[in-house]
Model the fold of this input.
Amino acid sequence: MVSHFELKCTTQPMPKRAFVRNASPSNKFNLSTAELKETAKMLRRHVITMIATAGSGHPGGSLSAADIITALYFRILRHDPENPQWSERDRFVLSKGHAAPILYAALAEAGYFPVAELATLRRLDSRLQGHTDRNLTPGVEMSAGSLGIGLSFAIGVALAARLDSKTYRTYALLSDGECEEGQTWEAALAAAQFNLDNLTAMVDCNGMQLSGWTRDIMNLEPLIRKWQAFGWHVIDIDGHDFDQILAAFLKADKMKGKPTVITARTIKGKGVSFMENNVVFHGKAPTREEAEKALKELG
Amino acid sequence: MAEASTREIYGKTLVELGRQNKDIIVLDADVSPSTMTNFFAREFPERFFNCGLQEQNMIGIAAGLAASGKTVFASTFAVFVVCRCFDQLRLCISQPNLNVKIVATHGGISVGEDGTSHQAIEDLALCCALPGFTVVVPADAIETAVAVRAAADTYGPFYIRLSRPKTPIIYPEGYHFTLGKAVTMKQGKDVTIMATGIMVAKALEAADILARQNIDCRVINIHTLKPLDEAAIVKAASETGAVVVAEEHLAQGGLGSRVAQILAKEKPVPMEFVNLGDRYAMSGKAEELLQRYGLTPTDIEELVKSAVKRK
Done:
């Protein structure tokens, strides 16, 4: 058993910004690109520590999504950690539910619950379930873990915004492997049919899935042309480049009449040399030695 | 006996609910002329979404709307919304306990000529297996209207199963309906027939036939399969000493299984089961199918005699 605190997940405190409660459409953290980079590194350290402590989990897909999620929670999303049910909040739907650890890390650092609680991941009675649970975790919009259903849920949320004349935006993060699920494409058709320009999907294209390379198992390419053919505005980016990530979100906001999908090209296990592009770490916890090595690499 | 369509009254009730509550949203998977959600679509086009032939996506959309404060009715044929979407019902509706009302038409084999692919005969077992779901099978159009209203007024996931053909009206207007409370349709002391859906009218017919043979049947309509009115079931079993359960469903997991589970623990009595057994049906006229697969008043009559004999 690895102790969370023995691993000394040293974290710098979050940079403090003036919070304007419920007043501004902008993100209350509004971190600079340099600060986002540091924050992403810290969230990655949490992911390693949490999964090592739990003894099970999916590090690869959390690490690939770390930069996108950091950008969302600390720069893009309009949200209020003190008021998780704030009616005007932007909604983030994690469809790739196995990346729960990176979402929990972001939520904890944003202030939805104590950072110390991250050590309870996957434990009996923890609020931090192996896959996201809408009923338990403050800030989690939807239960997930069965792939291919999150985008449909996000459509419902985006339709509700339109019905209620609300200005919040709905974001859904999918994995590329998840695009093998038929329901993803049902949702892709429907979001375009309903002209949901208040919906942004992101595909964490790390190129891998549980048992190997996506291109070898069920090839998705050309992915951009598929989404375009389904009626979406597509922005293809390097999912680890914050300038590109931020620019893509701003472009998506401005798009009128159709939904936007950001195909973010990422590296599974990003940030930890021996996890990068290593399918073994799709769903395997690092040992104590591996976790220590990983934390060292992540500074 | 006068007949009326449960799906037509569903469509009309939705319109009335829509007028009273602007947060009621209706989804359909391209069968609104059949589910009769088209009445609502005509009056409230901005609150109606035809999700096309995407039942699974429809369930996810329903969940998203419900999570945003809407009361969502999602309708299509029972076989497609339950059998095709079980994972979505489980993770999007049941687990998060969202306010989605699945109102499915074309339940059971009385769908008729469309055949096996369109006949939901396992939907009650599947929906009863979803924690938090309330499962209702109205016995006629009058009960359908009040059940749909009760669903709108009660927070949480619902499954309501309706039929394709018109069904006999067995309740007077003004019938008082309580979710989860079985209704004694006819008093009797020798045996209790517990029925749901279209089998309630058939149970009443069987009771008339049996009365002429000096067998005094009690008939109970168990419109709510979940939560089950356990007290009423145990009381009837105690007072009559034998139970026959009738349903338009497979033998496993429906009303018969649920009643047997309660009585095995609380009041074991001789039981018989009127259902489809463990097989799919086929194309045919509804009445022909009900006869072929053992769901007639005569079938009930025979099994009542068998249960009484074993007392």
